[in-house]
Amino acid sequence: LVSVLSSAIIVYRLPWTWKCSKRLMKFIHAGLNTIAMILAIVSMVAVFEYHNARNIPNMYSLHSWIGLTAVIFYSLQLFLGFAVFLLPFAPVHLRAALMPIHVYSGLTIFATVIATALMGITEKLIFSLKNPAYSASPPEATFVNCLGLLLVIFGALILWMASRPHWKRPPEDNAKVLRPIGGTPEGTEAESTMTDGSNADKSDLRINSEAARKQNLKLDEAGQRSTM
Q1: Rounded to whole angstroms, how far apart are CA atoms 169 and 80?
Q2: Labelling 19: which of 45, 53, 99, 210 has CA 20 to 30 A away?
Q3: Helix 92-128 and helix 139-163: axis angle, to 10°?
Q4: Rounded distance, CA 205 to CA 212, Å?
C-alpha cells in the first residue's frame, strides 16, 4: 500500500510523464490506486483470518484502529475519484471545487498509512522479540528501527514532491486536468468569456481612440488651412 499509493500520488509529478496525455495519466493514476486498494483489502482479510485462526482478538490496538480508518477513507477517496474525476459526468465547477479536497485527503491518507506501518512494525517487534527482548536492542530490532526511519524519510520525500509547485505539470497541461469529454478545460470557459469580453472592450476602445485621433487631425488640418 505504501509503495503503490506513493507511485499513484507522484505519477503526475514526474517530468518524463509530462509529455504523456492527461487522459493517459489519469487512467494510470486510477489504476495504481485500484491496485493499492485491492492489496489493502487482501491484506486485511489475511490479518483477520490469521487472528481468528490463532484466537487473537481483533481491532484492539491503535495500529488496527488507524489502519482500518485509513482503508475506509481510502475506499471513499477511490470511489469519489472515479465518480467525479475519471468519469465525464460530473460538472466542471464540481470538479474544480473538489480537486483541492481530493489532493489534501490523498496526502493525509498516505501519511496515515505511513503512521500505521510504523505502529505495526513496532507492535510486531514487541510481541515477537522475547529472548532477547526488544528493549535489549538485538540486531532484529535495529534492522526494523532502521526500516521505520527509511519509511519516514520516504514518506517525507513523497509529500515534498507532491506539495512543491515546481514539480507540477506545466500550466498548459494543467489547464486540461478537469476537462470532460467533448468539453472545455476547467475554468477556461469562464476565463475565455471574460478574456473575449475584455478583448472586445479593448478593441472598441482602440477603434474609438483611433477615430477620435483622426477627427482631431482633420480639425487641425482644417484650422491650419483656414489660418493660411
Answers
A1: 23
A2: 99
A3: 170
A4: 10
Which residue has cell 485462526?
53
Mind listing the pLDDT tens digit of every residue in the chain (228 residues)?
899 999 999 998 888 888 888 889 999 999 999 999 999 999 999 999 999 999 999 999 999 999 999 999 999 999 999 999 998 889 999 999 999 999 999 999 999 999 999 999 999 999 999 889 999 999 999 999 999 999 999 999 999 999 988 888 886 544 444 444 444 444 443 334 334 444 444 444 455 555 555 555 454 444 433 333
Cell of 95: 470538479
The architecture in CATH of the region 1-167 reads: Up-down Bundle (1.20)
Produce one character per residue of 10-37: b if its CB has 16 or more CB atoms within 10 Å, e if not: bbbbeeeeeeeebeebbebbbebbeebb
* Cα separation, 55 vs 94, whole angstroms: 48
Contact status, residue 119 vs residue 66, Cβ threshold 8 Å: yes
Residues pairing with 130 in the sheet: 133
130: three-class secondary structure by DSSP: strand
Q: Three cell numbers at 3?
A: 509503495
- The grid cell for 70 is 485509513
Q: Which residues contact 174 (CB under 8 A, 6 or more apart)?
A: 168
Q: Extract the C-alpha cell encoding 183.
A: 468539453
